[in-house]
Structure to design on (300 residues):
């Protein structure tokens, strides 16, 4: 029996679509606004005259940013830590989360509760720095990778997701003589792709945007500064130089100074450079992300 559509259903569908279209535009517009301000006339951007469409399009801001010293090296550092850190985090979260579902694991409840307790305590920056120093990780590239491999929240998400997989699959494989590692690699890992992809997105964003570890722990190794750290230095240098030039009597025209040191444009360009890689990766992970975050959060 085919039910005729009612007026109320049509109104609801229309309102629902209108709401989510509007919400999508609200989410997209900030990135669009940043982009059009980075490719428009710097003078017009400084005056706040670029709002909805680009004016006098140019890409000089990106070209100038690419000329910043050591920027490419910092970019490679951020990319490498994001790739290696994400891979190791996903592997560790998947395997430890799987072990937490095994009743035969020695003291399983104790270890699980011990991990959860660590989520509620944070010693602070100074003890964290001293700990990294005692471990020999200061001014060491490995400090970008090792501390972030284990994340209790990720392990809980994986454990919850794996518990939703029918236990009969593992039991049948065990009867056929499969070991724990074989079951994990051949059955659990492929079926856990949604939650693992979700963790991969979280880990990639965390590693790519990480800033404090580079700022605090890499004081003697400028060659290992991350992209965010290097751009932060560039932004501060530009801000200080503008203040110095604005109070000096060097004879530079105001128009030239504003074109060279437009802080607003610098901020917009840096924001776009740091956001573009994650925005480019996310669409490929979205179908896994949606499923994983829903199923992994059903129970704890």
């Amino acid at each position: 029996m085919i039910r005729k559509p009612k007026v109320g259903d049509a109104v609801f569908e229309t309102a629902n679509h209108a709401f989510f279209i509007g919400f999508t535009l609200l989410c997209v517009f900030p990135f669009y606004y940043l982009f059009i301000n980075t490719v428009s006339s710097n003078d017009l951007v400084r005056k706040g005259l670029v709002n909805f469409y680009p004016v006098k399009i140019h890409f000089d801001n990106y070209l100038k940013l690419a000329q910043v010293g050591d920027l490419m090296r910092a970019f490679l550092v951020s990319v490498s830590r994001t790739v290696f850190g994400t891979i190791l985090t996903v592997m560790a979260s998947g395997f430890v989360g799987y072990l937490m579902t095994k009743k035969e694991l020695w003291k399983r409840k104790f270890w699980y509760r011990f991990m959860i307790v660590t989520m509620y305590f944070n010693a602070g920056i100074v003890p964290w720095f001293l700990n990294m120093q005692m471990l020999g990780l200061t001014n060491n590239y490995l400090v970008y990778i090792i501390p972030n491999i284990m994340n209790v929240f990720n392990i809980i998400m994986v454990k919850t997701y794996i518990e939703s997989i029918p236990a009969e699959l593992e039991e049948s494989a065990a009867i056929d003589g499969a070991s724990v590692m074989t079951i994990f690699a051949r059955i659990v890992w492929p079926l856990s792709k949604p939650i693992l992809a979700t963790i991969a997105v979280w880990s990639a964003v965390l590693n790519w945007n990480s800033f404090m570890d580079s700022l605090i722990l890499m004081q003697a190794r400028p060659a290992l500064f991350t992209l965010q750290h290097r751009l932060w230095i560039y932004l501060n240098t530009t801000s200080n130089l503008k203040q110095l030039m604005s109070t000096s009597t060097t004879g530079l025209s105001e128009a030239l100074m504003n074109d060279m040191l437009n802080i607003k444009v610098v901020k917009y360009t840096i924001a776009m450079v740091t956001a573009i890689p994650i925005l480019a990766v996310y669409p490929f992970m979205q179908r896994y992300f949606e499923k994983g975050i829903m199923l992994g959060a059903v129970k704890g």
In short: The mean pLDDT is 77. Residues 83 and 220 are 24 Å apart (CA to CA). The longest helix spans residues 263-295.
